[in-house]
Amino acid sequence: MALVNEHYLKLSDNYLFEDIAKKVNAFRLSHPKVRVISLGIGDVTRPLCPAVTEAMHRAVDEMASAATFRGYGPEHGYDFLREAIVKNDFIPRGVRPDLDEIFVNDGAKSDTGNIGEIVRWDNSIGVTDPIYPVYIDSNVMCGRAGTLSDGRWSNVNYMPCTAENNFIPQIPDHRVDMIYLCYPNNPTGTVLSKSELRRWVDYALENDTLLLFDAAYEAYIQDDDIPHSIYEIKGARKVAIEFRSYSKTAGFTGVRCGYTVIPKEVTAATLDNKRRIELNRLWSRRQSTKFNGTSYISQRAAEAIYSPEGKKQIRETIAYYMDNAAYMLNALKGAGLEVYGGRNAPYIWMKTPGGTPSRKFFEQMLYATGVVCTPGAGFGPSGEGYVRLTAFGNSEDCHEAMERITAWAGN
Ligand SMILES: *Cc1c(COP(=O)(O)O)cnc(C)c1O
């Protein structure tokens, strides 16, 4: 008899996003004449840029000929891509990772979810709250999060980020083994300045904490003093793993490619505390066992975004989304709504008027305007009282959604 991993059972019935989809469906059925506009999705909508699709066509043609066909590639990624990453994403920022510190993957979700495998199940964890649910759920699955009560997991340190603290998480007053940071942030769309991020690196150095830094929205940063990589901070190479993804940067949500950086200086202790083990080595071992690499075509596609045309084209797409974000911020503020983020990230985090619970507000707005948002409570306890709006829609929809919301809010 096979026994289940009972930690998984703790997750069931708790999936807010399915619940939202059901409510939206029910609304569509009862209001067939209303055109629903979703500002709830966390997916891009603009097509891949020509530099990328041309590179993919070329790669497909190579696959079609015996002379240029490629089978299994290196598990950790082709050097042509790893070299382009180092040269374009890091060297201009004064950071120079070795090629074997870069692990090309099929997107950041898998690695942010799987990284916990190479550290003990009983490490304590910390997350800024609200947060991308993968960090917590993947820890629930191995028992590291503990048990749920009142919407909080017993072994998780929640660091609230709310309007009251200007969305700047407070550094814990005690040791935490592993801390997840996501900047620019999903869902709040807020960022940390260099000096604020430095406080986290200093904390990690002092407390021997492992930082897991998710920079999936790095390409959306507009302001100069916001770090794009945690390695721009001195000492981070000793304590931080960084996750990057082409999903939001270049519309790769359906192509699948990203990468993780694990500097060789990042180590974790054995239980007897007698030895320090390089996490780069463990992750390399883990990946060679469980992962056979990202498709050649996807890696050629990713390489193409670093070409001069590719860079220009993805910048245009990002500008398109960021124009939406600016328009939304302006319209919502004009309607007297309290909004955050949206300047260095494609997300707008809106306070629900009068402190309405986020699920209730989601439904009110859906029924009043036909616009879908995401209730903040789905991202953690401190998300209550907020909703997330994304700038990933097409601009006509985005403008119409703002008209509907401002007309409704004005009443
Ligand atoms: C979208 C997103 C990712 C990227 O996931 P992929 O698997 O690369 O598509 C990673 N982290 C956060 C916080 C995200 O919102």
From TrEMBL:
It is an enzyme of class 2 (transferase). Pyridoxal 5'-phosphate binds at Y72, A108, K109, Y132, N186, Y217, S245, Y246, S247, R256, N292. Belongs to the class-I pyridoxal-phosphate-dependent aminotransferase family. LL-diaminopimelate aminotransferase subfamily. The gene is dapL. Substrate binds at Y15, G42, K109, Y132, N186, N292, R388. The lineage of its organism: Bacteria, Pseudomonadati, Bacteroidota, Bacteroidia, Bacteroidales. Residues 36-405 form the Aminotransferase class I/classII large domain. Homodimer. Its cofactor is pyridoxal 5'-phosphate. The modification N6-(pyridoxal phosphate)lysine is found at K248. PANTHER family: AMINOTRANSFERASE (PTHR43144). GO terms for biological process: lysine biosynthetic process via diaminopimelate, diaminopimelate-aminotransferase pathway. Keywords: Aminotransferase, Pyridoxal phosphate, Transferase. It catalyses: (2S,6S)-2,6-diaminopimelate + 2-oxoglutarate = (S)-2,3,4,5-tetrahydrodipicolinate + L-glutamate + H2O + H(+). It comes from the Bacteria. This is LL-diaminopimelate aminotransferase. Involved in the synthesis of meso-diaminopimelate (m-DAP or DL-DAP), required for both lysine and peptidoglycan biosynthesis. Catalyzes the direct conversion of tetrahydrodipicolinate to LL-diaminopimelate. Its EC number is 2.6.1.83. The keyword Ubl conjugation does not apply. One of its GO terms (molecular function) is L,L-diaminopimelate aminotransferase activity. Coiled coil: none annotated. Pathway: Amino-acid biosynthesis; L-lysine biosynthesis via DAP pathway; LL-2,6-diaminopimelate from (S)-tetrahydrodipicolinate (aminotransferase route): step 1/1.
